[in-house]
Write a structure and sequence with these properties.
The protein has 211 residues and is an alpha/beta fold. It is built from seven helices and six strands. It has a six-stranded mixed sheet. GO terms for molecular function: phosphatase activity.
Length: 211
C-alpha cells in the first residue's frame, strides 16, 4: 500500500511587533528582513518538496505568504487549498498581550518549554488539547481523502506539534516538548491504519569547507 505522505512546513518568521506579544491565531504579517535573509531556505524547500503534490495552507495569511515565497524560489506554482482546522491555537483574551503579562493569568504551572501548559484554557479561546483534537480530526480526514498522495501543508508551530502528537499518541504536554523551527520541514506518513514519523525539523545543511 502506498503511504499518504505529509510534508509539514512551519511558516516563516513573523514581523517584530507580533513577536513581542502572544499572537496565537491573530493574522500577522511575515518579517520582510527575514524573507530576504532566508532566501536559501526557500530555494531548499522549492527543491526538497515533492512534485506533484496537493498544497494546503491555513486561513492565516502568513502561511499563504510562505507558500508564495517557496513558489517564487523555484517550486512550480500550484493551487492552494485552505484548511482552517490546521490554524494555530486560538488564545482568546490572551491574544495580543505582552509575554511578560501571561504568568499572572495562568491557572496551571507553565510548561517547561512553552509559556503555558497543554491543558491551560485561555478565556475565550481553546486549550492545546482542544486544538490537538481539532487538528487530528482534519488530519485523519485528509489522509482518507488523499490516500496514497503527497500532501504539503504550510502550517504553524502549534498545529505541527498537534500532528506529531496525533501520529505518536502523545499527550498535550508531551507534544509541547517539540520545538518546531520556522521554515523547517517535518514529515509524517499514514500507512494503512498506522502513522509513522519520518523526520522532524529538516533544514538546509551546508557541508563544512574542505581542509
Amino acid at each position: 500500500m502506498t503511504p499518504t505522505r505529509f510534508f509539514l512546513v512551519r511558516h516563516a518568521l513573523v514581523e517584530p511587533s507580533a513577536r513581542a506579544v502572544l499572537y496565537g491565531s491573530m493574522d500577522v504579517a511575515l518579517c520582510d528582513l527575514a524573507l530576504r535573509q532566508e532566501a536559501a531556505s526557500y530555494r531548499w524547500l522549492a527543491h526538497r518538496l515533492p512534485q506533484p503534490a496537493r498544497w494546503f495552507v491555513t486561513n492565516l495569511s502568513r502561511t499563504r505568504a510562505t507558500a508564495a515565497a517557496v513558489f517564487a524560489a523555484g517550486y512550480p506554482e500550484t493551487g492552494l487549498d485552505i484548511e482552517p482546522e490546521f490554524a494555530e491555537q486560538h488564545l482568546g483574551d490572551w491574544q495580543g498581550i505582552p509575554h511578560e503579562a501571561l504568568p499572572a493569568l495562568l491557572t496551571r504551572p507553565a510548561h517547561p518549554f512553552w509559556p503555558h501548559a497543554g491543558e491551560e484554557h485561555p478565556p475565550g479561546g481553546e486549550s492545546f488539547r482542544e486544538m490537538q483534537a481539532r487538528v487530528s480530526g482534519a488530519l485523519e480526514r485528509m489522509a482518507t481523502l488523499l490516500e496514497g498522495q503527497d500532501v504539503v501543508v504550510v502550517a504553524h508551530g502549534g498545529s505541527i506539534r498537534a500532528m506529531l502528537a496525533h501520529a505518536m499518541g502523545l499527550s498535550p504536554d508531551q507534544a509541547l516538548v517539540f520545538s518546531i523551527k520556522n521554515l523547517s520541514l517535518t514529515r509524517i506518513e499514514k500507512h494503512g491504519l498506522d502513522w509513522r514519523v519520518a523526520a522532524v525539523n529538516e533544514e538546509p545543511w551546508t557541508p563544512p569547507a574542505a581542509a
